[in-house]
Amino acid sequence: MDAANQALLERTKRARSVSRSLVTKQINKLEYEISNSADSMRFVHEIYVQLISKFEELSTLDKEVESLIKTESLEDEILTREEYRDKFIIWKIRAERYIGTVSSITFQNLVENQPQNKTPLNNTVSSVLTNQQRLPKLALESFSSKDMSSFPRFWARFKSAVHDNSNLNDVDKFSYLKSVVTSDAELAIRGLTLTPENYAKAVKILEDIFGIDRTNR
Fold first, then answer.
1. CA 134 to centroid of chain Cα atoms
2. Of 77, 173, 198, 213, whose CB count within 10 A is highest?
3. InterPro entries under this entry (predicted)?
């Protein structure tokens, strides 16, 4: 490696070292706020956004370093990069789950405490709650995604009770689905509103992630 490239590599490594420290600092902040603060959703959201930005910067620096180093050093570089990436993914998911959980609880409390003679705070959420209240009670198994091997059994039971039930429309089916998935499975379809079209999208998302057998659709 010539002197110019060597100098560029050292400069990039130093910048990356700072970037790694900043990412680690943001992860430590997230861990503290999620674990120790009783009312920290705003802070968690701010730290979460900052973490994503800093990790993007780190990823760019990783690519620059990998393009400059010798081939024999590439394996160690990739292993270290993946360690930081794994930490980032874990805390990104935990932050999203925390924000989603706290937001849902807060919004639910607002809906429940709202005077009856006023317009609902959010028509979509209101319609979801109303729809769930009128649906017949079904004994459904929940799926948390912590044990991915349990998904085929879950889907087979859900399919029999709900998906293939001709007495239910797609909005009803989607309402049932939203009520029984938790953890990463719930997070995967959280952004979809309760519409007939989105039920098919939700099933497709779960299919892609957890492997619904297409022959069993």
1. 29
2. 173
3. DUF1759
Contact present, 19 and 12 (Cβ < 8 Å): no
Cα separation of 210 and 101, whole Å? 22
Q: Model pTM greater than 0.70?
A: no
Which pLDDT score, from 0 to 100, does residue 152 have?
Answer: 85
Place of tokens 């995967």: 188
Residue 191 structure tokens: 């952004």
pLDDT in tens, 123-146: 444 444 444 445 556 667 788 766
> In the numeric block, which tokens belong to residue 62?
């990783």
Q: How far apart are CA 155 and CA 197, in angstroms?
A: 19
CA 205 to each of CA 94, 107, 188, 191, 194: distance values in angstroms, whole numbers, following the listed order: 20, 26, 7, 12, 15
Give the tens place of pLDDT for each residue, 161-190: 889 988 888 988 888 898 888 877 888 888
Cβ–Cβ under 8 Å, residues 44 and 52: no
How far, in Å, CA of 73 to CA of 152, rounded? 42
Close Cβ partners of 192 (under 8 Å, ≥ 6 residues apart):
174, 198, 201, 202
